[in-house]
Design a protein that fits this description.
Elements (H helix, E strand, L loop, with lengths): L4 E5 L4 H11 L7 E4 L5 E4 L9 E5 L17 H15 L5 E6 L18 H11 L4 E5 L14 E4 L2 H11 L4 E5 L5 H17 L6 E9 L8 E6 L8 E9 L3 H11 L5 E9 L5 H6 L5 E5 L6 H8 L6 E4 L2 H13 L9
Parallel strand pairs: 1-4, 4-5, 5-6, 6-7, 8-9, 8-11, 11-12, 12-13, 13-14
Antiparallel strand pairs: 2-3, 9-10
Length: 344
């Protein structure tokens, strides 16, 4: 049995950490960060103690790219090193350390598809093991098989319950779940099944159907070629729901939205776990047929900064917090209870 819960955060996940701590009724451990002029950084814990406590270090490996001069020093590599420094600094005091990476870094780098490249997802797990991390907690890995790269326990959570709650609250009829690609079919089918069950449990008659957009990629760019919608010929008067694990430039999702809009979709709602939103993604979303884009806070989204950097509104984007999912997982890990029901 481990001691009481202690939580600290890197600079990529400060808001999510505050939300998790508020739910658990604790204060985050104080941390100081210093960036030197030579590009080095230092992490310091100025007060309190985590001795023999069950410590959870929260830090995403990617954050919103909407940067200005106040955070120009930030890089994904820096966020990873920051996480490793925090764990290394506290390992000799804490009873156990769990690295909580809401958006796991380099999860896309899961295979050797060129002769001389690194499988970087595996390398990140090796780095976490090198600083003696005890376990990892994350959400919706782009490649779930990445869990097999680790020699320490890895728990993967999902935002499905958060999405389903929002979908049911919409009160929409005649729903069509359209997976943006074949890789997300299972996730969209899962949402469709549980949404239909939720409608039925509430006394309604579910009219829910599913399909997927067939597309292909010819290179490493973010410009897929959309072919057709498989399984759904007519989307007239239907509300289309699309879910995926992350959004980068938004080009792929918007192409899919255009495809279903051309087939008569009434409204189009997208549910994305990790909102990277790189480049001109927000402007593309604003100009697209998408009615609303729902994202979670695994990656921090600063609306004011996003609108300032992009020179326009971002009112099509709404954040759904997953803080309570992580808070419950942390509580169960500390108490030695099962996480199975949180894997949905």
């Amino acid at each position: 049995m481990y001691g009481s819960i202690a939580i600290c955060s890197g600079r990529a996940s400060l808001k999510l950490t505050d939300a998790v701590c508020k739910i658990l009724g604790i204060e985050p451990e104080p941390v100081e960060f210093h960036d030197f002029s030579n590009g080095n950084m230092m992490v310091n814990f100025p007060g309190g103690t985590v001795r023999e406590k069950d410590l959870f270090v929260i830090q995403s490996g990617e954050r919103s790219v909407f940067q200005d001069k106040t955070d120009a020093y930030r890089t994904v590599s820096g966020d990873i090193l920051e996480l490793l420094q925090m764990i290394s600094a506290l390992k000799d005091s804490a009873g156990r350390i769990t690295a909580v990476s809401p958006y796991f870094p380099y999860a896309r780098s899961d295979k050797k598809d060129k002769p001389r490249i690194a499988i970087t997802a595996k390398m990140i797990f090796e780095l976490l093991e090198a600083v003696r991390t005890d376990r990892v907690l994350t959400m919706t890995l782009h490649s779930p098989q990445c869990q097999g790269f680790s020699n320490i326990p890895v728990d993967q959570l999902h935002a499905n319950t958060v999405f389903i709650r929002k979908i049911l609250a919409m009160g929409k009829e005649k729903l069509a779940f359209v997976a943006p690609d074949s890789g997300s079919i299972l996730d969209n089918d899962f949402l469709a099944l549980h949404t239909a069950k939720g409608i039925r449990d509430a006394g309604g008659t579910p009219d829910v159907t599913t399909g997927y957009v067939k597309k292909m990629r010819v290179d490493d760019s973010e410009n897929p070629l959309v072919r057709t919608v498989e399984g759904l010929d007519d989307l007239s008067d239907r509300t289309v729901l699309m879910a995926d694990d992350e959004i980068l430039s938004g080009k792929s999702l918007i192409l899919c939205a255009g495809t279903v809009a051309a087939r008569g979709a009434k409204d189009i709602y997208a549910f994305i776990t990790h909102p990277i939103l790189s480049g001109e993604a927000i402007k593309r979303i604003q100009d697209s047929p998408i009615t609303k884009l729902y994202i979670t806070d695994t990656v921090e989204f600063d609306r004011e900064k996003a609108e300032r950097v992009n020179g326009g509104p971002a009112d099509k984007i709404e954040v759904l917090s997953v803080a309570h999912v992580f808070a419950e997982a942390i509580k169960r890990i500390n108490e030695g209870r099962s996480l199975s029901s949180l894997y949905l």
